[in-house]
Amino acid sequence: MNIDSIKNGIVIDHIAAGKGMQLYRLLKLDELDCSVAIIKNVASKKMGRKDIIKVDAAIEVDLDVIGFVDPEATVNVIRDSKLVEKKTIPTPRELVNVIRCKNPRCITSVEPGLNHVFKLTDEKNKVYRCLYCESKPN
Amino acid sequence: MRNVIDVLDLSVEEIEELIAVADDIMANPTKYQEVCKHKILATLFFEPSTRTRLSFESAMLSLGGEVLGFSEASSSSAAKGESIADTVSVVSGYADIIAMRHPKEGAPLVASAHSCVPIINAGDGGHYHPTQTLTDLLTIRHEIGRFDDLTIGFCGDLKFGRTVHSLIEAMSRYKGIKFVLISPPELKLPSFVKEEFIKNKGIEYVQTSSLEEVMGELDILYMTRVQKERFFNEEDYLRLKDSFVLTEDKMALARADMRVLHPLPRVNEIDTAVDNDPRASYFRQAHYGRYIRMALIMKLLEVSA
């Protein structure tokens, strides 16, 4: 399968297989007008299988979102068809309005204008919990 | 300005201070009867309550202060759709301190972001109930005399039991604690308590669905009601409501120095015949609530006798 290489844009590589669509959705890449390619289950020597996202525009992506979905992913910035930067993916301490709390007993389900905030409560196991009700995202 | 949203907002040392003040209030009530004169407590209860609201009101009145508020959401602007942020922004201009109960988890935390006076969480859904925990700790100090080296059984609704969650949080800071978790599978302790305050802290625990098997090893049995108001499905409530009933027969399996605590109200999970057992501490426990809340109000208002 051939996907055109990009001249100016970003490549999110080494995404754990199966997480590409979640990342596409949370990064709101569906709202872009440029070409976006999601390549699923690509053979990888290091990972076995992986997903890749290519965006044919020089956009800024929210690295916190990538760090939440898959901190092992890599972000390469391409300019004039050359790799000019590899971005470091942080493990975000806090996620604001990235994911929504699904607990119907949580105050976020009724209070208007309230941000959906998740805090990193267990760094080792990468556990996030709602700031208000302490539920995990689901 | 301090808020108490979670019992962990208070250090172990601060809890000791509160207990010392509560003990002094019990010994010398007249010394404290005017320390909150001209201060107002607002009790914003978006969910019904008897003990907690009345003990807060009694506490403030006993300190010489005044009380205003509402006891159910239908008699407040919440019924008109007002947000917590707006309600608290307004009420914090009418009172010096606010005690708030709300059926939604995290509501007092939202309130604290919009208040210019201290907020006390008086229970938020199935999440936390820190002032019940302060009451429980004062009870344990009086009835057992120590917080270390205790085996504490929690029985009943451990999923939605906010008093259970807060007490486990508080006790996880002491040495030699073992938790015995007794519940039907559907009402097991939620992960935010079990993972954060038991497993991650390496505290010994046992999960069981048999109260009889563990009675003999407990220093404290903390009974809870299966709360109808936490279920979206009445069928589930009806199926689970009689899961555990403490009877005289089961009390016979317990040690002579064991104590039974219950945050109350009780429905049928403790047989009334158990009330006469000297190990049944729950009515004494309810009385302690007033004194520890007096101590807490004084601390947050920064007044002393």
Description:
The complex is a heterodimer of chains A (138) and B (305). In chain A, strands 2-3-1-4-5 form a 5-stranded antiparallel beta sheet, covered by helices on one side. In chain A, strands 6-7-8 form a 3-stranded antiparallel beta sheet, covered by helices on one side. Chain A has helices at residues 20-26, 63-69, and strands at residues 9-16, 36-44, 48-55, 74-79, 82-87, 94-96, 117-122, 127-130. By secondary structure, chain A is mostly beta strands. In chain A, strand 2 and strand 3 (48-55) form a beta hairpin. Chain A is elongated, with a radius of gyration of 16 Å. With 305 residues, chain B is of the alpha/beta class. Chain B has 2 domains: 7-128 and 289-301, Aspartate/ornithine carbamoyltransferase (Rossmann fold), CATH 3.40.50.1370; 130-285, 3-Layer(aba) Sandwich (Rossmann fold), CATH 3.40.50. Chain B is built from 11 helices and 9 strands. Chain B has helices at 12-27, 51-62, 84-91, 107-114, 130-143, 162-171, 191-199, 211-214, 234-240, 248-251, 282-301; strands spanning 40-45, 66-70, 97-102, 119-124, 151-155, 178-182, 204-208, 220-223, 259-261. In chain B, the strands form 2 sheets. In chain B, strands 7-6-5-8-9 form a 5-stranded parallel beta sheet, with helices on one face. In chain B, helix 3 crosses helix 4 (107-114), helix 5 crosses helix 6 (162-171) and helix 5 packs across helix 11. The two termini of chain B are 20 Å apart. At the A-B interface, strand 8 of A face helix 4 and helix 7 of B.
